[in-house]
Amino acid sequence: MNRLIVVSNRVNPPSGEGDESVGGLAMALAAALREYSGLWFGWSGKTTPEFTGQLNIEKVGGVTAATVDLEETDLDEYYNGYANKTLWPLFHYRNDLAAFDRSYGEGYRRVNCRFADTLAPLIEPDDLIWIHDYHLIPLGRELRKLGVKNRIGFFLHIPWPAHQVFINLPRHRQLVEAMFDYDLVGFQTAEHQQAFEEYVLSEAGGSQPEPGVLEAFGRRVEVGAFPIGIDAEDFARLLRNSRARRMRDLMTACTVFRHLIVGVDRLDYSKGLEERFLGFERFLTENPDMRREVLMLQIAPVSRESVEAYQQIRERLDSLSGRINGAFADVDWAPIRYVNKNYRRDELAGIYGAARVGLVTPLRDGMNLVAKEFVAAQNPEDPGVLVLSRFAGAARQMPDALLVNPNSAEEISDALKRALAMDKAERIRRWSALFETVQREDVTAWRDAFVQALAGQKAQAPALAS
Ligand code: GDG
């Protein structure tokens, strides 16, 4: 079996069995690496005054992690700059928040070169290389420049935006050209894949000789949709642990005679939190008789705090949650519990399990794993209802959720009303269909489909005659 090298911006394998502090994706990648006896390469999370290229290699929980420190300027220009102030907002259709600064683009290119220079000496001839996400789009190209001939795949975790949105990016063509140095490019959904194809065909003069293959810039690349899932087996294990059960009992005790509505999201403007609060406010206004029957818990750990747009959304949510509680609360009840704390994965599982409604309403989302975690945590005999944005990648696989337009307070309010009134038979019917998909299309299926597609390919074909 070929060795697998996973590359992502951050490297954070769990320290061992029972480490529930890291995200589900990190757990899954770590499991893949243990299976393929591979290597996980990326940024250490530390900065130094000057870039040294010094590799730190350590074994963490059975995974070999190879990391490199970056310069302070790298962090500003590459990570906070191009990745999180340019690509992230633009790819989530927030052109109004996107900053186009030449230094960001230069920092992005520089860090991708630095990653390539540091990684290349570690690569052995038969290694499969799997690069993740928008931080590292040009990394494949930089590795090719250094003579790396291995099969290299790239997976985009966030949406690929519609053509007219994408062309707002200065030097958009260059970014797409770099993607033609991969053997395989994966997207979360067929819709994202089609948006990419449309760009290549209409803007880059490319062609599609057969479905799933694109030719442009004198090269050929395979493309496909690989919807990511959760580690359903691991999630079932989490649910059985004592912390999860304690948390579920605690939340059940806090909501006697009322229903818990839960949202869990990184504090990010793409997650539709303001619109969600407004939808809930409308529900409270329109349904006075149901007010005291509900409690909305929104967990939103802060993220990317040094980016201004994140500071602003945080202020707006503080004020909006305060306004709603001020208007509707009573001495013994307040409608919203808004929490910026980070919880362990097992605690989150317990919280989901106590909820009657999972409210997952991003304005745009590559996939959204919270929707799947909520489903996995339900009691099969009395499951809750998932209210899901139609603009989350997950909506495609989860038609049995109540799908809403996250921009419409009216639709969110109506969906909440419907979810809370739904009889048990319908809840079980909808949940069973959702759970079946969550289990079948889980993270292992995602990983294996991608790695097999990558491994099944012939080595990079020589450049086509142009
Ligand atoms: C990107 C794409 C795509 C949240 N709060 C806590 C916590 N979380 C965990 C959730 C979930 C994960 O973070 C969030 O995953 P999402 O998929 O919802 O969103 P992004 O972070 O934006 O992820 C997204 C994903 O990549 C994978 O491809 O689905 O579309 O944007 O697992 O549970 N985890 C813990 N404490 C918290 O307080 N431990």
From TrEMBL:
It is an enzyme of class 2 (transferase). It catalyses: D-glucose 6-phosphate + UDP-alpha-D-glucose = alpha,alpha-trehalose 6-phosphate + UDP + H(+). GO terms for biological process: trehalose biosynthetic process. Its EC number is 2.4.1.15. GO terms for molecular function: alpha,alpha-trehalose-phosphate synthase (UDP-forming) activity. The keyword Transport does not apply. Keywords: Glycosyltransferase, Transferase. It comes from the Bacteria. InterPro entries: Glyco_trans_20, Trehalose_OtsA. Pathway: Glycan biosynthesis; trehalose biosynthesis. Pfam families: Glyco_transf_20. Signal peptide: none annotated. Homotetramer. Probably involved in the osmoprotection via the biosynthesis of trehalose. Catalyzes the transfer of glucose from UDP-alpha-D-glucose (UDP-Glc) to D-glucose 6-phosphate (Glc-6-P) to form trehalose-6-phosphate. Acts with retention of the anomeric configuration of the UDP-sugar donor. Belongs to the glycosyltransferase 20 family. This is Trehalose-6-phosphate synthase.
